[in-house]
Amino acid sequence: MLRYPYFYRTYNRLFSHFVDSGASNLDVCPHTIHTAVALHTESKAVEGTALCGPQKVYSSEEKELEAMAKLHIPVMVDQVVHCLAPQKGQVFLDMTFGSGGHTRAILQKEPDVMVYALDRDPVAYAIAEQLSRLYPTQIQALLGQFSQAEALLMKAGVQPGTIDGILMDLGCSSMQLDAPERGFSLRKDGPLDMRMDGDRYPDTPTASDVVNALDQQALASILRAYGEEK
Predict the structure, then answer these.
(1) Which residue of 57, 83, 180, 213 pairs with 190 in a disulfide if CB–CB is 3.0 to 4.6 A?
(2) Which CATH number fits the domain that encloses residue 127?
(3) Neighbour-count burial of 7, counting CB atoms closer than 10 A to its CB (0-12 exposed, 13-18 middle, 19+ buried)
(4) What is the count of structural domains for the chain?
């Protein structure tokens, strides 16, 4: 689901040769306005769903990842699945895998599909890896940024013209916001980190490094360019 025209144009520029030219589910999907009651009802409905598949005894680390995956429930999951309309044998790219809520819902709707699960967050990638071990013919985890997606797909053996749909659900998830050590939360104290890649690149400056090293003019430029401040 490509929700914003800017990212739709970006998708066209970067991935058009990967996507099946005959696919009909690549347009921008409109938002649906939800009431708080509707969101709560939908979240509960999604929370009770599970993929059909082989059962597995989880290790303590896997249990922790599974519990983390349940922290974030996509509130528009039904609209996403309806927009993508997965059919048997199709291939999808989830560019913001997160905790896997959308990917799980796609597979619940149609188990006989392939989903490439991309995320730059190592925690999200670990969740995708865990899920891919349970469903090796349905999910392949990819670790990287949007700008690396094309190279990762090529490395995974994805042929041009074979992707039937692309999903992008932009922004932080509750999985990140509820972890004080990540530095995204406004409700809990923690280090001002805010690196979407976590500790994957230890030399990458944290938000704390940035605000303490740059002057007011530089910080204002960053907020205008990337924070949508006027």
Answers:
(1) 180
(2) 3.40.50
(3) middle
(4) 2
C-beta separation of 1 from 80 below 8 A: yes
Same domain (yes/no): 30, 73: yes
Could you tell me which of 100, 145, 147 has the C-alpha nearest to residue 124? 100
End-to-end CA distance of the chain: 28
Q: Where are the beta strands (DSSP E) in the chain?
A: 91-94, 114-119, 139-143, 165-167
Domain boundary among 168, 185, 203: 168
Nearest to 181 by CA among 201, 203, 206, 205: 206
Contact 75, 39 (CB under 8 A): yes
pLDDT at 78: 92
Distances in Å between the alpha carbon of 152 and those of 55, 59, 123, 206, 214?
Answer: 30, 29, 18, 26, 34
Mind listing the pLDDT tens digit for each residue in 60-98?
555 555 555 555 678 789 999 999 999 999 999 999 999
Same structural domain, 218 and 123: no
The per-residue pLDDT for range 92-150, each reduced to its tens digit, is 999 999 999 999 999 999 999 999 999 999 999 999 999 999 899 999 999 999 999 99
Between CA 84 and CA 79 the distance in angstroms is: 9
Cα 223 to Cα 53: distance, rounded to the nearest angstrom: 46
Range of the domain at 204: 177-226
What is the phi/psi pair of residue 199, to 5°?
-95, 15
